[in-house]
Specification:
The structure holds 2 protein chains of 2 kinds.
Chain A: E1 6-9, E2 13-16, H1 19-41, H2 50-67, H3 70-76, H4 79-102, H5 128-165
Chain B: H1 2-18, H2 24-46, H3 60-73, H4 78-86, H5 88-110
Helix pairs in contact in B: 3-4, 4-5
């Protein structure tokens, strides 16, 4: 027996038919994404950083997916893109550390490797910290999205099997 | 003082066993629980207060971060300068943990 507010369409596609949830999610999602990007790129100046900003950005994508359906969510970011970003974030982080070696410092060195620090307090400052923060943000956002999609699609596949059995 | 306490505990145990008929095993359990609670509360009472100047955690390492973190890393956010510059290798391990977690989830779900 499906829960309330859920209707079954075309077999197993479960989606929420609620105008309030849909319109609210559609209105709020861009602002959440903008705030997530703000938290990521200002990680060296204000509270926040890659992990928290990435979590905010990823949860906005999850919000769109659960308030509409999975296809609308997959339109925002495809699985292939999410997987590529997920691996690319970690790779970029590691390559930033390697770049520090080629610039003449230790692994993941910042000032010793000669990254331009700039004036403290300005947006373009802190050298490698800003780059690393952006890479972590990309990685965390795509990790949350990929985890959600993998689990929810597995859930739907299991639901299909159960419905065909009965 | 501790002798009086131990004598009191022994007499209490004898009283509970022979006057009230409590089993030996449950008396032992109560005593063990009391000992654990005493040790835990003593440990908490001995901990330094929040923000105390003589806290062992406030040594030369956070002093270095607070005094020269901005000039050494260029970031106003001290937390960001620690996790992304001073302890960047630890953060790389954290990103690796995330990567391993999602790889395990995908491998488990797609294998069925």
């Amino acid at each position: 027996m499906p829960p309330l507010n859920h209707t079954e369409q075309e077999g197993s596609r479960i989606e929420i038919e609620d105008q309030i949830v849909r319109i609210t999610a559609r209105l709020v999602a861009p602002f959440i994404q903008l705030y997530g990007i703000y938290v990521i790129v200002n990680g060296h100046l204000s509270p926040g950083g890659g992990f928290s900003g990435g979590a905010i950005f990823g949860s906005s994508l999850v919000l769109v997916a659960i308030s509409f359906n999975l296809e609308a969510g997959a339109k925002q970011i495809s699985h292939q893109t999410a997987s590529l970003l997920e691996s690319g974030g970690a790779l970029g982080f590691a390559l930033t550390g390697l770049a520090a070696i080629f610039l003449g410092g230790n692994y993941l060195a910042n000032r010793a490797a000669g990254f331009p620090l700039g004036q403290a307090g300005e947006f373009f400052s802190a050298g490698a910290i800003w780059i690393i923060t952006v890479f972590i943000g990309i990685k965390v956002a795509s990790t949350i999205t990929t985890l959600f999609y993998n689990i929810i699609e597995k859930e739907q596949a299991v639901g299909d099997i159960k419905r065909t059995d009965t | 003082m501790s002798f009086i306490l131990i004598a009191f505990l022994i007499f209490l145990a004898l009283f509970l066993r022979f006057m009230l008929g409590v089993e030996v095993r449950s008396i032992f359990t109560y005593y063990l629980l009391g000992l654990i609670i005493y040790l835990f509360s003593f440990t908490v009472a001995e901990m330094p207060l929040f923000g105390a100047i003589d806290s062992p955690a406030f040594n030369e390492v956070p002093r270095r971060y607070l005094e020269s973190g901005v000039t050494e890393t260029g970031a106003l956010n001290i937390v960001s300068s620690i996790i992304n510059d001073y302890r960047a290798f630890d953060t790389l391990g954290e990103a690796t943990v995330l990567f391993a977690a999602i790889a395990a989830v995908i491998a488990t779900l797609k294998s069925h």
